[in-house]
Input
Amino acid sequence: MTAVIRVLLVDDQPMMRLGFAMVLAAEEGIEVVGEAADGRAAVTQVAALSPDVILMDVRMPTVDGIEATRSIVEAHPAAKVILLTTFDRDEYAFAGLRAGASGFLLKDVRPAELVAAIRAVQAGDAAVSPRVTRRMLEMFAARLPVEGGVGGGPDTSGGEAPGDGPKLSAAENMAALSPKEREVFGLLALGLTNGEIADRLFVAEATVKTHVGAVLKKLGLRDRVQVVIYAYQSGLAAPGEANI
Output
């Protein structure tokens, strides 16, 4: 039997929390275990309730969603945070993902998409729209002059990934991956899903999932969002690759 996904709702507007709770109550395998009205309360509730997924508003009084996400991820690495906002602004997405969030969605997301996002991040995938992924890649490409493509001409100066990422040089980290894992790493860096990677490599999606798990473990990264960030910070992806 599949384990129930435990969800914490964090938003300073009671009606928003009620709306999300009603949507999720109708879904099998998802349970809302608690609510919080600001980031400080969210940190406390996560410690008390150990939810699997936190739906986190970005703009809240006292402690905002981005700072709360940073605190939660540092203290509870297994927790997955999906940031929610009414504002379609890149800086919120980038700051949230850098803080450790596994997803970023607008509050007007359709119920089916919200549920899919929760299931995706719980399974180790990311819930970030292609637009946000593309803009994030473009942002890193603009800031980092890189020679060569994914897997070629990496920065060997020891660039580190966010959070508790790799501490060795990029070259040393990539050397730890098998040839197939390096292929998967390159496609993850483009923001592709497991299904899309499977189609590219002509393998089963289950095989891709195994490779993704190995890449994350060997590089010390918590999820595929960090793979994208690490690839660009360490010079393992070229600007031209951002056009996914």
Notes: Residues 144-165, 239-244 have pLDDT under 50 and may be disordered. The CA atoms of residues 155 and 235 lie 5 Å apart.
